């Protein structure tokens, strides 16, 4: 069985392969839909990582001519969890030997003490959650592979529920959002079946990629000023209570 951490790493590897394959097929088509995230066509913004210069579509196509595996087209995720543009870079020696891009080289985890890059997320409660509008409150982002067995159970969020209760008892405003690859119907079902301690943000794998998180569950606690206070991976979130102050 694939471990939770390995699953997300494989997801990142697959994501890189999918975009590289699309770049190669662009030689035959002037436009190509790659997924719900977007397309690579003549209107797509593509940049060279080394120079920062924009790459014309024709040059981009030539870089992948004949099925060349020298380059990777790395999707850049915006605050809505959508692909806004692509950055092309050469693959590392290790990636060439592996035969695929490792996007963990491109998406770095946020640093504690730094302002978290902005987000706008759509919850399974039909509400929109914006990091800018949530300033002044603590924000807890938890990242989950899936909200169904075998990846999620009644005990999965037990400590998180306890942490939310601690914050409530201290009269501390804490907004808890659970980013997941589950579909919207699965998010609705989980809200009804489990005591989650968070509002599910379904179909949000791009936010996992954006923040460079490869382990489920992971937790990001953002302070009222928007700075990242702590990052916990594959462990209980209860130690985060020490950061919750009125």
CATH fold name of the largest domain: Glutaredoxin
What is the percent of helical residues?
Answer: 25-40%
Low-confidence stretches: 1-10, 12-37
Q: Please identify, by name, the CATH architecture of the largest domain.
A: 3-Layer(aba) Sandwich
Radius of gyration: 19 Å
CATH H-level superfamily title of the largest domain: Glutaredoxin
Strand elements, count: 12
Major sheet characteristics: 5 strands, mixed
Q: What's the end-to-end separation, in Å?
A: 44 Å
How are strands sequenced across the largest beta sheet? 10-9-8-11-12
Nearest-integer average pLDDT: 83
**Helical stretch count?**
6
Helix/strand/pairing class, anyone? alpha/beta
InterPro entries: Thioredoxin-like_sf
Protein name: Thioredoxin domain-containing protein
Signal peptide: 1-20
Keywords: Signal
């Amino acid at each position: 069985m694939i471990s939770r951490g390995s699953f997300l790493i494989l997801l990142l590897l697959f994501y890189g392969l999918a975009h590289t394959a699309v770049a190669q097929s662009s030689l035959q088509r002037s436009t190509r839909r790659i997924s719900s995230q977007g397309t690579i066509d003549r209107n797509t913004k593509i940049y060279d990582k080394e120079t920062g210069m924009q790459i014309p579509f024709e040059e981009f196509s030539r870089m992948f001519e004949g099925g060349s595996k020298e380059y990777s087209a790395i999707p850049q995720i915006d605050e809505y969890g959508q692909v806004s543009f692509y950055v092309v870079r050469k693959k590392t020696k290790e990636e060439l030997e592996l035969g695929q891009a490792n996007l963990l080289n491109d998406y770095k985890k946020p640093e504690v003490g730094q302002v978290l890059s902005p987000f706008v997320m759509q919850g399974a409660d039909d509400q929109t959650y914006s990091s800018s509008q949530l300033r002044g409150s603590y924000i807890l982002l938890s990242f989950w592979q899936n909200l169904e067995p075998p990846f999620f159970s009644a005990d999965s969020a037990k400590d998180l529920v306890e942490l939310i209760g601690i914050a409530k008892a201290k009269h501390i405003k804490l907004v808890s959002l659970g980013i997941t690859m589950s579909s919207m119907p699965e998010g609705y079902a989980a809200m009804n079946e489990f005591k989650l301690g968070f509002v599910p943000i379904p179909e949000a794998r791009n936010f996992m990629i954006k923040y460079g998180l490869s382990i489920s569950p992971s937790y990001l606690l953002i302070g009222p000023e928007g700075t990242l206070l702590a990052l916990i991976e594959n462990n209980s979130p209860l130690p985060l209570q020490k950061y919750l102050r009125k």
